[in-house]
Design brief:
Length: 277
């Protein structure tokens, strides 16, 4: 079953590209036509590409790994953050810190610092500090939450990135390339799709378009999570059955041995005793 339809893409305005003078020639394969000075994206290719991206991202999540969502542009950040939270995936929607992937160890230290501040407030140490110190710590906590709150549970590098607007998120794309991390992205007519592993030609400025494409990816992630959960349950059930069978085996063996002895005694009793003449 298709994850979306041509009509859905049309209604969301996914086909509207940028002005023809702002185009990137590398997007030519995804452009259907030019109308009133604006490039129109070929929605047949969008349908194909979004299906490919959804299928691939589903397999990544099914294997138990994380996908990092990146969307720092104003019209995308809230949509992406809300969607990512529904499937418990990490996200960056404020500002991409240089080295967030290539210098991940340092980023983890900042995340740890944030959790240490939380511990201070819980164990009562925070209340013993001066008003000025509390204010400084509070400001730092707010800043860290804004920048790193979406990746606070990310303990290792993500298995893939999903981006809105690769032109704006070029630093994230560059870091992913260096680390061979697969990238999935909405790519508009003014962007270069050549560095993206799974480009989805689409309008990356309209909120309806962003919401539709991101929603399809989130649906695929949810499917991957559900399948992983079912597989784990099936495996646990098989292990339980195997353990029970193993536990029952000695009893069955003992029962069989007892049965053999009983049958032998019964057979001996039925055999007439030999008489001597």
């Amino acid at each position: 079953m298709a994850r979306t339809t041509y009509q859905d893409l049309l209604d969301a305005g996914v086909h509207f590209g940028h002005l023809t003078r702002k185009w990137d020639p590398k997007m030519s394969q995804y452009i259907f036509m030019e109308r009133n000075g604006i490039h129109i994206i070929d929605l047949n290719k969008t349908l194909t590409k979004v299906e490919e991206a959804a299928a691939a991202i589903k397999q990544i999540v099914k294997s138990g790994r994380k996908v990092l969502f990146v969307a720092t542009k104003k019209q995308a950040k809230d949509i992406v953050a809300d969607y990512a939270k529904t499937v418990n995936m990490p996200f960056v929607t404020e500002r991409w810190l240089g080295g967030m992937l290539t210098n991940f160890a340092t980023v983890r230290k900042s995340i740890k610092k944030m959790s240490n501040i939380d511990k201070l407030t819980k164990d009562g140490t925070y209340s013993n500090l001066s008003k000025k110190e509390r204010l400084m710590i509070q400001r730092e906590r707010i800043k860290l939450e804004s920048l790193l709150g979406g990746i606070s549970d990310l303990n290792r590098l993500p298995a893939a990135l999903f981006l809105i607007d690769v032109k704006k998120e070029h630093i994230a794309v560059s870091e992913a390339l260096k680390l061979n991390i697969p990238t999935f992205a909405m790519v508009d007519t003014n962007s270069d799709p050549s560095n993206i592993d799974f480009p989805i030609p689409a309008n990356d400025d309209a909120t309806k378009s962003i919401s539709l494409i991101t929603g399809i990816i989130i649906q695929a992630i949810q499917e991957g999570l559900d399948e992983r959960k079912r597989e784990k349950e099936d495996e646990a059930e098989k292990e339980a059955v195997a353990a029970k069978t193993k536990a029952d085996a000695p009893e069955a063996a003992a029962g069989n041995e007892g049965g053999k002895r009983a049958r032998k005694v019964a057979a001996d009793a039925e055999t007439p005793a030999s008489t001597e003449e």
